[in-house]
Design a protein that fits this description.
Helix content: 25-40%
CATH topology: FAD/NAD(P)-binding domain
Strand order of the largest sheet: 5-12-13-14-11-17
Cofactor: FAD
CATH architecture: 3-Layer(bba) Sandwich
Low-confidence stretches: none
Radius of gyration: 23 Å
Shape: globular
Distance between the termini: 39 Å
Order of helices and strands: EHEHHHHEEHEHEEEEEHEEEHHEEEHEEH
Largest sheet: 6 strands, antiparallel
CATH class: Alpha Beta
InterPro entries: 4Fe4S_Fe-S-bd, FAD/NAD-bd_sf, GMC_OxRdtase_N, GMC_OxRtase_C, P2Ox-like
Keywords: FAD, Flavoprotein, Oxidoreductase
Strand content: 15-25%
Structural class: alpha/beta
GO molecular function: flavin adenine dinucleotide binding; oxidoreductase activity, acting on CH-OH group of donors
Number of helices: 12
Organism: Halovenus carboxidivorans
CATH superfamily: FAD/NAD(P)-binding domain
């Protein structure tokens, strides 16, 4: 019986209820009539413990936890590298923050000037200093726990709103080895509460942060969706937008479907596309017309192009002592020492010292054939002496890496997204370099190396970037420095899809900062 009819006299229509859409909606809802449309459902927070149980049982795969899969979520992967898209996303109120790990770092200053500083990709049309105050706002909005102890990070203006999580026991083992090798470690900023914050619990250590936090200590975008609704916004779930009605210079309406089989038309003065790095270009391509035969807002031909992700490199092994892994579901120490050594040959690297390598005792017990003393013996043998080090590596933006329309259709008869993913040689060389650093650290600990993810086995971190890139030249970019499309004067894009380059840190804090900056630009436009 949910009312999913359009909102009359809407000023702003936000498409997508993930972190970017939620922050834009919350920022504008007090002053404007805002409506948010999302393709997925509104999940019941009381069911999170049930989803946690599903997450730890071997029978279920990760997409099952948040009900991904089926004709609604079909996709193609035509590139030379297969892209497992549904492993990476959640359709629903809150979006990918419902299952993310919660790491939030600022891009480095050279990430904004990659072309001139490193000789790779374009420079952003904005500088770090332009985004710096919005980074600070984003950290307050999300509730970031951190410490100013990273000598390689960009300059800060004030402390994090919450104290950092203390280093784990295994961090202390890594620290001894890294000190002998001259490798600096530092804390990791987390979008989870180290103490109660804005009515939400502090972290209670469930350990299943990815893919579900039952306590609500880890930030997710329902925080700002709920706040936007309290300010007067209307949020409509299960309302996938089919296409955008438009003229030559403006979007007139979003046409969306509802579970009862009806289609509705939502009009507004301003439209914000916040569907992520895959669904945003897909919606623009689905909205092709005589005026825009190659896709809406695509006179540049850049819609869908330059798809990027972070590549993973990892090495792990076992040592002859207890490491107390799997006590928390996130990592607490990192190293960005090798980040700004990037150039044309090697990409930035962010090292991650895992707290969750090796089998967890719960998963081992649930999947074991043994019982009683035999199971206890196996747990004592298999659990607790593993160590692992991960790394994220930047991917170069390439036009031949893109999101297009596939040959299959979804449950509404629309072409599904086709992720045509390619990986460049610079990224693969950098993965080899990250592996060598990881091996040095583990060898210093006299570890027996038991696994490694190198160039041949690497995969994505599921950070979709670059498909509606930002720039000042309308012939090779989709949005301007304020994230308004060059072609349409009432359409903004709030997403990692606007990133011209990706850096090597997790993108969500930059998404949030850009969303807040975009909301300010929309406010100025509507107020003028």
């Amino acid at each position: 019986m949910t009312d999913r009819t359009p909102v009359s006299d809407a000023s702003v229509c936000v498409i997508g209820a993930g972190p970017a859409g939620a922050l834009v909606a919350d920022s504008l809802a007090a002053d404007y009539e805002v409506v948010v449309l999302d393709a997925g459902p509104r999940f019941d927070p009381d069911e999170r413990v049930d989803r946690q149980e599903r997450a730890i049982r071997p029978y279920y795969d990760r997409p099952d936890v948040w009900e991904m899969g089926g004709p609604r979520d079909d996709h193609d992967a035509s590139g030379e590298w297969f892209y497992p898209l549904n492993h990476a996303r959640v359709k629903g109120i809150g979006g990918s923050t419902l299952h993310w790990q919660g790491m939030v770092m600022r891009l480095h200053e050279d990430d904004f000037n990659s072309g001139s500083a490193r000789g790779v990709g374009p420079d952003w049309p904005i500088e770090y200093e332009d985004l710096r105050p919005y980074y600070a706002r984003a950290e307050r909005e999300l509730g970031v726990a951190g410490a100013d102890d990273n000598p390689y990070g960009p300059p800060r203006e004030q402390p994090y709103p919450l104290p950092a999580f203390p280093p784990s026991y295994s961090d202390s083992l890594f620290a001894e080895a890294c000190e002998r090798l001259g490798i600096d470690m530092h804390s990791v900023p987390n979008a989870r509460n180290s103490e109660p914050y804005q009515g939400r619990s502090q972290c209670v250590g469930y350990g299943t942060c990815q893919p579900v936090c039952p306590s609500g200590a880890k930030y997710d975008a329902t925080v700002h969706i709920d706040s936007a609704e309290r300010r007067g916004a209307t949020v409509i779930d299960r309302a996938p937008v089919q296409y955008l009605e438009h003229g030559p210079e403006r979007i007139d309406a979003a046409v969306y479907a509802t579970p009862d089989g009806e289609e509705h038309t939502q009009q507004a003065e301003a439209f914000v596309l916040a569907c992520g790095g895959v669904e945003t270009p897909r919606l623009l391509l689905l909205s092709a017309s005589e005026t825009y035969p190659d896709g809406l807002a695509n006179t540049s031909g850049a819609v869908g192009r330059y798809f990027m992700d972070h590549l993973f490199a990892g090495t792990g092994g076992v040592v002859d002592e207890r490491t107390r892994q799997n006590h928390v579901g996130f990592y607490t120490s990192s190293s960005q020492q090798f980040y700004d050594e990037a150039d044309e040959e090697f990409a930035p690297i962010k090292l991650e010292f895992f707290n969750y390598d090796g089998p967890s005792p719960v998963e081992t017990a649930l999947s074991a054939d043994e019982w009683g003393d035999d199971l206890l013996g196996r747990l004592r043998e298999d659990y607790g002496n593993h160590l692992g080090i991960g790394a994220l590596v930047e991917q170069r933006p390439q036009a031949e890496s893109y999101v297009g329309l596939g040959e299959e259709t979804d449950n509404h008869g629309n072409p599904v997204p086709d992720v045509h993913w390619t990986v460049d040689d610079r990224a693969l060389r950098t993965i080899e370099r990250a592996n060598r650093i990881q091996e040095r650290i583990l060898n210093e600990l006299d570890a027996e190396i038991t696994w490694q993810v190198g160039p041949d086995g690497t995969g994505p971190a599921y950070h979709h970037m670059g498909t509606t890139r930002m720039g000042t030249d309308p012939t090779d970019s989709v949005v301007d420095p304020e994230c308004r499309t060059h072609d349409l004067d009432n359409c903004w894009i709030a997403s990692s899809s606007v990133f011209p380059t990706g850096g090597a840190v997790n993108p969500t804090l930059t998404i949030a900062a850009l969303a807040l900056r975009t909301a300010d630009a929309i406010d100025r436009s509507l107020d003028s």
